[in-house]
Design a protein that fits this description.
The chain is globular. A hairpin with a 2-residue loop joins strand 4 and strand 5. The chain has an 11-stranded mixed beta sheet with strand order 13-14-15-16-18-17-23-19-20-21-22. It has 644 residues and is an alpha+beta fold. Helix content is 29%, strand content 23%. Helix 5 packs parallel to helix 9 and helix 9 packs across helix 12. It folds into 3 domains: 100 residues, Immunoglobulin-like; 191 residues, no CATH class; 255 residues, no CATH class.
């Protein structure tokens, strides 16, 4: 178990875990890793192992405490007082609590993304706080209480910062920096409030159009995390209503984080809007010293506040280098820039049943594909081929240990399958305005990449947890794969790829091989909704469930049709149809998606957090919104009824 803590003063600490009701600690870490981030800010990561090489019990209430060690004596009293004063425990408990899912039992998980401090359009309440209500109501009910919280990106907004928030950042940085001032490269001087839009556009080549208060220094990013998760870091005083509503729910958010194993992957706003949207974007930013600096500051802060504890082992080999780079940046800032730009260990998995694997779709993009073919300014592969090879290599042994009764669960920051009307509108506008204004980087905007992903999925049953788009919905999709040239190329590129079936003979037969089933659950945003009632009404009329229609894909081309029992029904532009055999149709995929039908949740524009249960083949899901629990749905992978 990893436990993370930040303090304004250095301490000698001991982190301990025990079963609730017991006075005996069953696991300790007396030597947590400490990083002096600023003169008056320290981050700690404890790695608590069970005593005597044993195991922590499952489906039992566990609790943890943090002792200050004074002259060899561990004193837990100050932590217990803080827990009581700040309301960090539930019910009559004196300490924060959690539990570990029992192998083979059903998995309950919360997930969400996109939490902008000053957004009130989707409701005044931060939907992340609804997770606290769920835990409070199910404290000892381990068949209901969430075992994990999965955050899929945009945990902070580095570009879109409210004036009042920037004021608080200045106050908080003054508290922990103790006079330490970051010297910007190229002789640049940090602009004041409201004056950073042109500064980052010109000197860093950033493309956000909401950057008047963009975070720039390492202290800026660090302070933003302090404000995002702890009410105590906000100074008393009057503020605009949209800021007050955020602050008022922070106590619940902090308690949820303190009592629930939490995993976090980044998306663009954790660094800046459009981060690595295209290869050209990355090249332009890296060519400017300020661009290189800001991205490094953001990644260093992400590692400290989000990434470090996701999978402690994956950073073990380079951890000392990362710590030294942060602590020594004043003497050699370029070393910190270099090391964090080079980190390539962001993907990880949560050891649940089934396992939850978090994809990094930001730092390993490729230059091929997109609407403009080979243009480096076009939407990039979200993961380049080498990155996919590494992911497959990491996933394969994990899946071999996991029963086929369980689906593969992937956290993907943006939806793989979206509303077609939105994808089409986004592509049309971006052809005129350019790719940055409306973030033309969806999986649908990168067709070759989407098709590569579908090939890699084989015949898996897959649950996708996504966000990013600022609305909630669910979708089911079935991808039927056929023996074609592209599949054979993928097999050559991925020698470790274990597909359930491969084509026979020297030439493609275009015969059906296998199908993958997807359930996509999209919860977005925790606090940054689309806020458009007209969009909500328009999207609620969209449905892809009629008449069993599918996209029949040949290379990069596609047409509307159907596929069943070895025969295709193909439609022409006049609506006439004809039946075609597999070997004559020469189709790569048949993609059948269902959205906005009776089996799936409708478009949700209000703030929301997603809740799901996985019980082997059974998937249950709902959203918690300002209106309460809504849109509960259930699917079962053993039945085709949800996909046909």
């Amino acid at each position: 178990m990893t436990i993370w803590l930040a303090t304004f003063s250095p301490f000698s600490l001991k982190f301990s875990i025990r079963q609730n009701g017991s006075s005996d600690w069953i696991g300790d870490d007396e030597h947590p890793i400490q990083i002096r981030v600023f003169p008056k800010l320290y981050c700690y990561l404890a790695f608590v192992l069970p005593a005597a090489g044993g195991r922590f019990p499952t489906n039992e209430l566990l609790e943890y405490s943090i002792a200050e060690v004074i002259r060899g004596v561990a004193d837990y009293s100050s932590f217990e007082k803080m827990v009581a004063d700040d309301g960090l425990s539930y019910g009559d408990l004196k300490l924060p609590s959690f539990f570990l899912q029992r192998p083979g039992s059903k998995l309950n998980a919360l997930y969400g993304s996109c939490r902008k401090i000053h957004d009130d359009l989707g409701g005044a309440t931060d939907a992340m706080s609804f997770g606290d209500d769920i835990v409070s109501q199910s404290l000892m009910k381990f068949d209901v209480r969430p075992a994990v919280l999965c955050l899929g990106g945009d945990q902070i907004y580095a570009d879109d910062v409210h004036d009042a928030c920037l004021d608080e950042i200045g106050t908080l940085t003054g508290k922990f920096s103790d006079g330490f001032v970051e010297t910007l490269p190229a002789g640049l001087v940090l602009p004041g409030k409201g004056k950073r839009q042109d500064f980052v556009t010109k000197n860093a080549k950033f493309t956000s159009d909401a950057a008047k208060n963009h975070l720039i220094t390492f202290a800026d990013y660090v302070a933003m995390y302090g404000l995002a998760w702890n009410r105590n870091n906000w100074t008393p005083g009057s503020r605009p209503p949209e800021i007050v509503t955020f602050i008022n729910t922070l106590s619940k958010v902090r308690r949820l984080l303190a009592n629930t194993p939490t995993y976090m992957i980044f998306d663009d706003h954790d660094v800046t809007d459009d981060w690595n949207l295209s290869v050209r974007w990355e090249e332009d930013v890296k060519a400017f010293r300020l661009g290189t600096r800001i991205v490094a500051n953001a990644l260093a802060a992400y590692w400290l506040f989000q990434g470090w504890g996701n999978d402690y082992d994956q950073f073990a080999a380079i951890e000392s280098g990362l710590r030294e780079a942060i602590e020594g940046r004043q003497q050699d800032y370029q070393s910190m820039e270099k090391i964090f730009w080079a980190v390539d260990r962001w993907e990880f998995f949560a050891p649940t049943y089934p396992l939850i694997y978090f994809l990094n779709t930001r730092t390993n993009r490729g230059c091929r594909d997109g609407l403009l073919g080979m243009d480096r300014s076009a939407p990039a592969y979200l993961k380049n081929v080498q990155s996919w090879i590494a992911t497959v290599k990491k996933l394969r042994p994990l899946l071999d240990k996991q029963s086929r009764d369980y689906p593969l669960v992937l956290v993907v920051p943006g939806p793989v399958f979206d509303f077609p009307t939105i994808d089409q509108l986004q592509a049309t506008i971006s052809a005129i305005e350019g790719p940055y204004k409306y973030d033309l980087e969806s999986w649908a905007a990168n067709k070759n990449h989407l098709f590569l992903f579908m090939r890699l999925c084989g015949a898996q049953n897959i649950v996708l947890l996504s966000g990013d788009v600022h609305y909630g919905f669910t979708a089911t999709a079935k991808v039927s794969t056929f023996d074609d040239d592209y599949l054979r190329d993928a097999i050559r590129q991925f020698p470790d790829l274990a597909l359930p079936k491969k084509g026979e003979g020297v030439k493609p037969t275009y015969k059906f091989l296998y199908a993958a089933k997807f359930i996509q659950l999209t919860s977005s945003a925790l606090k940054n909704s689309s806020g458009s009632e007209s969009s909500a009404l328009a999207m609620q009329t969209v449905s892809l469930s009629d008449e069993g229609l599918a996209l029949l894909i040949r290379g990069n081309d596609f047409e509307l049709g159907k596929y069943k029992n070895g025969d295709f029904t193909v439609y022409d532009i006049y609506g006439a149809y004809s039946q075609v055999r597999e070997e004559d149709a020469k189709v790569s995929f048949a993609l059948r998606e269902r959205v906005n039908d009776a089996l799936n949740s409708p478009y949700i524009s209000s703030h929301n957090i997603g809740w799901l249960t996985i019980d082997k083949q059974d998937i249950t899901h709902c959203f918690y919104t300002p209106s309460g629990k809504i849109s509960e749905r259930r699917w079962n992978f053993s039945s085709d009824a949800y996909w046909e």
